[in-house]
Design a protein that fits this description.
heterodimer; A: 4-stranded antiparallel sheet; 11 strands; B: 113 residues; mainly beta; 5-stranded antiparallel sheet
């Protein structure tokens, strides 16, 4: 079975542009969460989606948005990119908030560089 | 600020030695998970320990959890050069639902051949 897949793997954008990152969860997993990892730090929670609804949001500006599709895949959108948005964006897949104490599995991430 | 804090920030050992990393957290949790990350790539899930568990084993890994001290440790026995990576603990807090993990800053482990 395929693990969590993210695309693209690398991306270079200019300040002010918009970016869309994509994630497909593990088959059978209904929850997708997004994390931002700046170089040298641990991942920071951005969003959790379950059954196409936002179930949690971290401390990120409104320039960050996301959505989940009927097949449980997800997109993370970032508008008006800033240099500080340069990071590794990680997607995590899990069974969902209704199931306690289940592991979250991560994709390989998308490395976003804003110049 | 990060919920979890790993200690030490960096650890360098020789192949065959044991490596111990510690994690402290601040709030009540449902569970605590340990992950490995190689050179800025994706996170690899290592082990999950529930709040009502005290110790868990998986191969060369041993994880302990002390909820009274709000701390956990990851022990890697008989380390190998391939264990060189960053290790993160992540907590799933009791008051939130689902997988909203809070990570520490990580421990950079270097295993010298």
């Amino acid at each position: 079975d395929a693990g969590v897949t993210q695309s693209p793997t690398h991306l270079i954008k200019t300040r002010g542009q918009h970016v869309t990152l994509r994630c497909s969860p593990i088959s059978g997993h209904k929850s997708v969460s997004w994390y931002q990892q700046v170089l040298g730090q641990g991942p920071q929670f951005i969003f959790q989606y379950y059954e196409k609804e936002e179930r949690g949001r971290g401390n990120f500006p409104d320039r960050f948005s996301a959505r989940q599709f009927p097949n449980y895949s997800s997109e993370l959108n970032v508008n008006a990119l800033l240099l500080g948005d340069s990071a590794l964006y990680l997607c995590a897949s899990s069974l969902g908030p209704g199931v306690m104490n289940t592991e979250a599995f991560f994709g390989q991430g998308t490395r976003l560089t804003v110049v | 600020s990060q919920q979890g804090e790993e200690d030490p920030q960096a650890l360098s050992i020789q192949e065959g030695e044991n490596a111990t990393m510690n994690c402290s957290y601040k709030t009540s949790i449902n569970n605590l998970q340990w992950y490995r990350q190689n050179s800025g790539r994706g996170l690899v899930h290592l082990i999950l320990i529930r709040s009502n568990e005290r110790e868990k084993h998986s191969g060369r890994l041993r994880v302990t959890l002390d909820t009274s001290k709000k701390s956990s440790s990851l022990l890697i026995t008989a380390s190998r050069a391939a264990d060189t990576a960053s290790y993160f603990c992540a907590t799933d807090a009791r008051e939130t639902s689902g997988s909203r993990l809070t990570f520490g800053e990580g421990t950079q482990l270097t295993v010298n051949p």
